[in-house]
Amino acid sequence: MTTLVRLEILRTLRNKRYLMFTVLYPALLYVFFISAYGNGGTVANGVAAKSYFMVSMATFGAVGAVLTGSAQRISLERKSGWTRQLRLTALPGRAYTLGKIAACAVTTLPAIVVVFAIGAVEGVDLTAVQWLGLAAALWLGSFVFAALGVALGYAAEPDAVQPVVMIVYMLMALFGGTWFPVSDSLRTYARFNPVYDYNQLASFVHGEGVAALPIVALAAFLVLFTAAAAALYRKDARRA
Amino acid sequence: MATGTGEVAAFRNVSKSYGRVKAVNGLDLVLRPGETVALLGPNGAGKSSSLDLLLGLREPDSGTVELFGGTPRAAITAGRVGAMLQSGGLMSDVKVREIVELACRVHPRGHGVDRVLATAGITELADRRVDKLSGGQEQRVRFALAVAGANDLIVLDEPTTGMDVSVRRQFWDAMRAQADAGRTVLFATHYLEEADSVADRVLVLHRGRLIADGSSAEIKARAGARRIGFELHPADGAPAGPDFDEAVLRALPGTVGLDVSTRADGVRTVRIRSADADAGVAALYAAGYHPRGLEVTSLGLEQAFLTITGEQDRTESRTESEEEYVR
């Protein structure tokens, strides 16, 4: 199984287009936001713009990396018959999915680290513990979206999967505080949006302490998406 | 190659439908160790569906499929089966060596990569990217995946599609080497000459049913392996003129099919499909005929195949119209 996981990681890192989209694109957006808000700019609740968007662009990159990395590839490889070919090997069925998730997890790290590096250069001031804690929280949180990506990959056909992923991704980002903070009136509903909860993981660096609710919500989403992915996988296996 | 006892694979009264289409209909079949078996059938005959069932990629609606006395999945996990599917996609963004290495590593009885690359004749492609290969090259990579370990059964679905003639010959040489090593080989193909020259057993599948099972010589014999053609001129005597009786020709030994056409000048052109041309021709002369322009030609497996599936179609349409009539 490790051979497959290693090969999945290797081929993902080889795909330059994918790396551009998942690493470079959020980094450029972040630079754009910093210049748009100015060096001393703040968003709602007085949080510094450069610190707010550092988190939201890191999550934006991470979610993009895992969603496209898993959903698109799984869908394409179901169509091409590679998943059938793998079922004719002694590998257990879960190995394929685990390989995809591992490859995603490896690519979310650079997406997070590059944005953080820009933030540090631009003067986001955190303690070493905060930096590490934030990176770990965002990295772990990305697994929720990897599960969602796997589910979408088994649900949608290749010609549909790209628009489906894009719509899901953009709607979650739009109402999840990625481009602007969620207004008070929408906040009640926002907690049912995993991207909002994901962004909230960072609240402890804004001096608000560790938020328990988003962690619980993300854990619930993880269970939900994993169950959906498992059910869709089994359905796909029956249809071969 | 020795054919041992025991069962490599067994279909017992297996049926599978997709919606209203019966893809596989009451299939009963046993493969024995060491056999090289060709699976023939027109498009949509149920070849790929049967192979899917054999490999456990799909579950039968009724009946059972066994590989080496257990479930298909158990045989695969034990590393006893290698397969090359028609629709077996390959990983993108990896090199040929990497994907073959993956297959070797995950195989419980895997061979070394270099050996497998050599077996499949793709050593020189080892560093090429999989997504940059031609169709025939991709087929050889798929073949490498099917022979990555010490399998007892190798299943190939239309393996030579997209290969040019010389590559196809190399491929069958590699395949024969596998069979000579005592492996059971089952392959589906469109190319009947491949079945004729490679297989020691031929299965003909039509509309989900097994309609013929035997050596290629037996299949040809069943279809009437030779064609006897001649002309009968009225000037040559009574049997060819006023006393002409088709029933006499039909009664010739070995006759499987008869076709007679008469020209305006009374000359009849006769074509007989025969399972025993020698006896047929001898009896023809004994019955007092003087055939002109006598020709005896051999039918290929292709002709035999068309004949058998055609007969089946006629039988089925007759049964259907009788059923109509009864209603």
Automatic annotation (TrEMBL), chain A:
State if Manganese is listed as a keyword. Answer: no
Q: Name one Pfam family in it.
A: ABC2_membrane_3
UniProt-annotated location(s): Membrane
Classification via InterPro entries: ABC2_TM (IPR013525), ABC_2_transport (IPR000412), Nod_factor_ABC_transporter (IPR051784)
Transmembrane stretches, by residue range? Answer: 18-40, 52-74, 95-119, 131-152, 164-182, 211-233
Query: What keywords is this UniProt entry annotated with?
Result: Antibiotic resistance, Membrane, Transmembrane, Transmembrane helix
Membrane-topology annotation of the record: Multi-pass membrane protein
Principal localization reads membrane
Q: Where is the ABC-2 type transporter transmembrane domain?
A: 51-230
Listed GO CC annotations: ATP-binding cassette (ABC) transporter complex
Q: What Gene Ontology molecular-function terms does this entry list? A: ABC-type transporter activity
Tell me, what is an example of a GO biological process annotation in this record? response to antibiotic
Q: Which domain of life is it from?
A: Bacteria
Q: What is this protein called?
A: ABC transporter
Q: Which source organism does the UniProt entry give?
A: Kitasatospora phosalacinea
Upper lineage: Bacteria, Bacillati, Actinomycetota, Actinomycetes, Kitasatosporales
From TrEMBL, chain B:
Q: What PROSITE patterns does the record tag this protein with?
A: ABC_TRANSPORTER_2 (PS50893)
How is this protein situated with respect to the membrane?
Peripheral membrane protein
Please give the InterPro entries that the UniProt record associates with this protein. Answer: AAA+_ATPase, ABC_transporter-like_ATP-bd, ABC_transporter_ATP-binding, P-loop_NTPase
* Pfam families (UniProt xref): ABC_tran
GO biological process entries: response to antibiotic
Name the UniProt key words of this record, in alphabetical order. Answer: Antibiotic resistance, ATP-binding, Nucleotide-binding, Transport
- Cellular location of this protein? Cell membrane
Q: Where is the ABC transporter domain?
A: 9-232
Q: Which molecular function GO terms apply here?
A: ATP binding; ATP hydrolysis activity
Q: Which GO terms describe its cellular component?
A: plasma membrane
| Protein name listed in UniProt | ABC transporter ATP-binding protein
Q: Which CDD domains match?
A: ABC_DR_subfamily_A
Name the domain of life this protein comes from.
Bacteria
SMART domains found in the cross-reference section: AAA
Ranked from the top, the taxonomy reads: Bacteria, Bacillati, Actinomycetota, Actinomycetes, Kitasatosporales
